[in-house]
Amino acid sequence: ECYDPVLSEVKEIFKDRDRSGVSILVPGAGLGRLAFEFASCGFRCQGNEWSLFMLLASNFVLNKCTEVNSFTLYPWIHQWTNNTMTADQTQPVQFPDVNPSDLPPTSDFSMAAGDFLEVYQTPDTFDSVVTVFFLDTAHNVIAYIETIYDILKPGGYWVNLGPLLYHYADIENETSIELSFEEVKKVVKKVGFRIQKEEADIPTTYTQNPASMLQYKYHSVKLVCQKPHESDTT
After folding, report:
1. Mean per-residue pLDDT for 133-143?
2. Which residues 6+ apart lie within 8 Å of 234 measured at CB?
3. Name one GO biological process term (predicted).
4. Helical packing angle, 181-191 and 141-151, nearest 10°
5. Angle formed by the axes of helices 33-40 and 3-13, to 10°?
6. Could you give the 3-state DSSP secondary structure of residue 155?
7. Residue 212 burial by CB count (10 A; 0-12/13-18/19+): exposed, middle or buried?
8. Residue 234's pLDDT is what?
9. Whose CA is closest to 225, among 200, 199, 190, 188?
10. Nearest-angstrom CA–CA distance, 200 and 217
């Protein structure tokens, strides 16, 4: 629901280029799956993650797992409510569904730990920045957008998909700027991006039991934005 749309967009954008020469950054990479998928497709890709919990899990899966479905989790074992069938609570999930060590030997794939705003300060570095369920993790969403613009090469693309949950909203002693999607688009244009594509009401879920009686669903938005070429800004 979340990864296929952005993977398809990036593949279409760079369909006429050698993928090994296209550099992609995935901030908020979580467990690293989206970044791994880009690397599997032949792109040069780096994932970035701040959460130590995510980094520990992604390191285990990416660097220690060498066989398909070699481990089993019971993700709903503590979910005592809204179970239709008794067996729903003890439903196992095996992982990984692919062998992470099967990346081509020539692949360029890495994970970088740290705060996105602190780690990435070199302008004109990446051909594409891809963000999924990331934009609303910011204290200041404007700073995220400005940084994405700065680190993209002229002519580069930002592909975004997700909601606007704003993780720090209503948390005491935490700064949080909460813009509507309408306001986000105004900031995007003000920073200098050109919006190439916009799609709303994309149904997406997040870490929930598909068999549960209670279901949450986001109506996510997708944006494809381009940083103008230098010749277009003069």
Report:
1. 97
2. none
3. methylation
4. 40
5. 30
6. strand
7. middle
8. 52
9. 188
10. 14
